[in-house]
Amino acid sequence: MKSSGRKAFTLIELLVVIAIIAILAAILFPVFAQAKRAAKGSVATSGAKQMALGQIMYTNDYDDAFSPTAEFDSNWAVYPWSYLQQPYMKNWSVLLDPTAAHTPNPSNGNSGDAFAVYGLWGMPPQRITSKNTTSPNDFTFGQQALGAAMTGGKKYFYDGIGGSAVPATGAPIWAGSGYTNGNVPSLTTTAIANPAEQVLISQAGNWDYMWEMVGFGDYGNGNDTPDNFDLYFSSCPANAYGCAAVICGPVARKSGNDPNVEGWFPWPAGPNPGQTLPTGITIWAGTDGHVKATPWKQLMGTTVTRSDGSLAIKAFWPSGS
């Protein structure tokens, strides 16, 4: 009679299989991570599209004008543009950006958490909405060392499209607001020379880029320009990046694993050695409703020449020249 026995794997065979699995895992895990990151970018792009369409629907009801960047009541409680868009978006989750640093916790009852969610996307206000600006030069990119290195020492003018709806003169004024007292209407769709090139909303660290605080004497030298950093309201829960100062303008989040991509540093230590302006991709929507993903330095570094020979950032210059 023949004796039958089981054939088993040898130790060497098991080690070879384990080694192959380890090699495959090392190859595929980065691919999976990249795919996950791309999926998050797609969700953010979809959210930006819905917000842009909400703004366009808003213009149909308000004489072709976009919503204010900020609206205040008589007690100076603020309602950001993203709050004002809810009747058109009808979905609070649209404001969430899965590529962002902030993870909201609605159960904690912290109103600052809501402000942080508002801050994940920003709408650029017009210079004339700020009560602290004394001249157009207050709204120039390249005032800080980081920006000057990018512009070659030149100053790039910039401006937004959003207005402000605030109490009339004589109403109680919130001292911390940088907005001028009185209403400043937002621009209309027909007032924008290049609708596809003008930023309507973008990924951000705060809902108005903190531009209205230019000249207020806030963090650093008081110029919350796109090449400066600030902490929103100096309160960690109200900041999309927690206890971190964030770039005062559009941020780059889509390539969040890259070094220096997000443009932030821990508070209050100041810029880290080697800190640079964002180097990644910014998701933004134009005033025509189209959504784009553009390298941050391309978005902020593409200029148009004004009639006097000075330069302006194309994406933030509604007049177009």
Query: Could you tell me the number of beta strands?
Result: 14
Lateral strand order in the biggest sheet: 3-7-11-12
Determine the number of helices (DSSP H or I, runs of at least 4 residues).
Answer: 6
Specify the biggest β-sheet. Answer: 4 strands, antiparallel
How many discrete structural domains? 1
- State the separation between the terminal residues, measured CA to CA: 98 Å
**String of helices and strands:** HEEHHHEEHEEEEEEEEHEE
Poorly predicted parts: none
Which radius of gyration do the C-alpha atoms yield? 24 Å
Give the overall form: elongated
Question: How big a fraction of the residues is strand?
Answer: 5-15%
| Average pLDDT for all residues | 83
Helix share, percent? 10-25%
Structure class: alpha+beta
